[in-house]
Amino acid sequence: MTEKSTPRYDRPFISKVYENLPGYGVDLYVGGREGASDVRLLRSHGITTVLNCAVNLDFNYVATPDEVSHDSRVGYGPAPIRYYKLGIVDGPGNPDTMMLAGFYQLRGALDQVMPEKPSYPIRDRGNLLVNCRAGRSRSVVLTALFLHLHIPQEFPALSDAIDLLRIRRELRPDEWHETPKPMLVAAAERTAHWVRLIEADRAGQPAAGALRA
């Protein structure tokens, strides 16, 4: 299935960028606002989890609120999609720790196990979508950072993962200079260094090798 967005972007609403992720067995997708807002499309691709990393974009997946809301309060309750939110600016202005938080939030979304309680009705574990407004910059660099650190034998450099995502997300070569934004790539490089130090300290080992799943 190929869902094309508006001619402005001329790429799918969502793109599968990695299949059968080692240690998890799920597929990773990257997309923009059109794909992330289409629950039927998400479910048709087996996507049960969405990480929205755009600070200037929000979604409300709650179809049936727990109670009727008055005029000044939005609806709340369980949704058919497990939804995580990270607010990254697509350009300068982000503390470096935002990218670090994004990496651990993405890994946490994959690792998290929902308890068998009525207050957690949505427990399906399926594929995961990382989105931003257009699926060109923030979502690409965050997903590439995760692949680089999670599968270093396949993506020894961050640029290796970015190159793969540019192709699988169908980004045009004439926009590669800003997809993703250079300052976000630089932040991801610094984050990769910090994560190796953090994980090595946790393991009591030198900062090298793959991360623990």
Attribute tags:
Protein-Tyrosine Phosphatase, Chain A; five-stranded mixed β-sheet; 6 helices; 5 strands; globular; 213 residues; 34% helix; alpha/beta
Which fold does the CATH topology refer to? Protein-Tyrosine Phosphatase, Chain A
**Terminal residue distance:** 31 Å
Q: How do the strands line up in the largest sheet?
A: 1-2-5-3-4
Domain module tally: 1
Q: Strand fraction band?
A: 5-15%
Helical fraction equals: 25-40%
Q: Choose one word for the global shape.
A: globular
CATH superfamily: Protein tyrosine phosphatase superfamily
**Topology as H/E string?**
EEHHEEHEHHH
Please give the number of β-strands.
5
Structural class: alpha/beta
| CATH architectural designation | Alpha-Beta Complex
Number of helices: 6
Domain Tyrosine specific protein phosphatases: 104-169
Protein name: Protein phosphatase
Organism: Gemmobacter aquaticus
Tell me what you see in this structure.
- It is a single chain.
- The chain has a 5-stranded mixed sheet.
- Helices cover 34% and strands 14% of the residues.
- The protein has one domain: Alpha-Beta Complex (Protein-Tyrosine Phosphatase, Chain A).
- It starts with 13 loop residues before the first strand and ends in a 10-residue tail after the last helix.
- It has helices at residues 33-36, 39-44, 96-111, 138-150, 158-168, 182-203, and strands at 14-18, 28-31, 47-54, 82-88, 127-131.
- The chain has 213 residues and is of the alpha/beta class.
